Amino acid sequence: MRAAAERANGPLEEYTLMPTHMRIRFSPAELTGWEPAEPFSFTKGVRTMRIPTDRSMINSWQHGSLLFDLETDPAQEHPVVDDDVELRMLRLLAQLMHGNDAPRSQFERLGLPYEGEPGPEHLLVRAQAERASATAEPLPERADLPAPELLTTPLRRLMSSGAARDVLDRHVPGLTDTELLNLPAGATLLQLARAAVIPSDALKALAEDLAAFH
Questions:
Q1: N or C: which terminus of the chain carries fewer CB neighbours within 10 A?
Q2: b/e per residue, 71-82, with b = 16+ CB within 10 A?
Q3: Strands (DSSP E) along 24-110, which ranges?
């Protein structure tokens, strides 16, 4: 599982001929920097609108790049560090990305060369192992966190409070910038943390800040 090479998790772009999200149109601010993109192999010679964005519910950088042996560890509980295997996987990944017309920006986001094969200098599993291990730390018990009742309040209801939304904007902007279509209606911050959408350290910081205004 290849993570973003940098914390900013970018560049991210949207390509479309119909600038709308699932429920709303793109805002004027989102459309300010759009440019015509060269056609993809699957767009039948038609150009699309290339729109820079920072909308991403999950930042893969925070989880780190991970390598698992699915034969001996099908539940993916014990990451391994194997430079040779990682390099083979990276080269297969790059081939698939080229084969599916992944834009150059996605190679940049993942720290992979667009021209030529990935080399040892592009490995990330070993470099990101400490962060990946920290993210995988068990979550604190609900009772040990400040404002546990807010952590178990449905996220949609929590976002209706201006003060709570400000806290969420600071710690998990990817959640507040999306339309939450992929989340169950009653999803809570604690449930998202258990699903690894929110890291343990971010959950603690959220709980402390939410408790401050509660």
A1: C
A2: eeeeeeeebeee
A3: 35-37, 48-53
Residues 26, 161, 168, 12, Cα dihedral to 10°: 0
The per-residue pLDDT for 90 is 97
Indicate yes or no: pTM above 0.85: no
| HEC string for the chain | CCCCCCCCCCCEEEEECCCECCCCECCHHHHCCCEEECCCCCCCCCCEEEEEECCCCCCHHHHCCCCCCCCCCCCCCCCCCCHHHHHHHHHHHHHHHHHCCCCHHHHHHCCCCCCCCCCHHHCCCCCCHHHHHHHCCCCCCHHHCCCHHHHCCEHHHHCCCHHHHHHHHHHCHHHHCCCCCCCCCCCEHHHHHHCCCCCHHHHHHHHHHHHHHC
At residue 28, the pLDDT reads: 92
The answer to whether 118 and 51 are in contact (CB under 8 A) is no
Sorted by where each begins, the domain ranges of the chain are: 12-133, 142-213
* Rounded CA separation 93/18 (Å): 29
Query: Can you give the pLDDT at residue 143?
Result: 79
**What residue ranges of the chain have pLDDT lower than 70?**
57, 174, 176-183, 185, 213-214
